């Protein structure tokens, strides 16, 4: 049985929800923003998890990077595209987390780009660049050290021609 997890991430805590292929609710819990606690909560479902989706506007990278390193298939919900569906969303964190998991299960999740977790000077630069992009909400942002242009509409890095 395949399972799907949704995480509604906030600055101090997150809400984790897990569903199965029939959209039955298997697990839900508010957790502090601790990678170890999130991993422990996901562990019973790890072998069956088709994916984990995280919705956050700015502080997602520590969680996504940590879970990817542990072998989880991660998806980043694109908050800009999800706004189109606000009428379908409920208003609490538990409903939002289950809704994210359902979007992933149905294959209709609007996704953002997840940068590879790079080491060295470019890794530091790119990590800082993605934070600047999300917090400043500009049309695009440029990483001056490696000259990657990040386009807001798709969250995809595009090599600059100059």
Oligomeric organization of the protein chains: single chain
CATH hierarchy class name of the largest domain: Alpha Beta
- Count of helix runs: 5
Number of strands: 9
Commentary on this structure:
- With 162 residues, the chain is an alpha+beta fold.
- The chain has helices spanning 35-42, 61-69, 79-82, 93-106, 121-136; strands at 3-9, 13-20, 25-32, 49-55, 74-77, 111-112, 140-143, 148-151, 156-159.
- The chain folds into two domains: 3-112, 2-Layer Sandwich (Nucleotidyltransferase, domain 5), CATH 3.30.420.40; 121-159, no CATH class.
- It contains five helices and nine strands.
- The chain has a six-stranded mixed sheet with strand order 3-2-1-4-5-6. A three-stranded antiparallel sheet has the order 7-8-9, covered by helices on one side.
- The chain is globular and about 30 Å long.
What's the quick description here?
With about 160 residues, the chain is an alpha+beta fold.
Key attributes of the depicted protein:
alpha+beta, 9 strands, 162 residues, six-stranded mixed sheet, disordered C terminus, Nucleotidyltransferase, domain 5, 2 domains, globular
List the helices and strands and how they pair.
Blueprint: E1 3-9, E2 13-20, E3 25-32, H1 35-42, E4 49-55, H2 61-69, E5 74-77, H3 79-82, H4 93-106, E6 111-112, H5 121-136, E7 140-143, E8 148-151, E9 156-159
Parallel strand pairs: 1-4, 4-5
Antiparallel strand pairs: 1-2, 2-3, 5-6, 7-8, 8-9
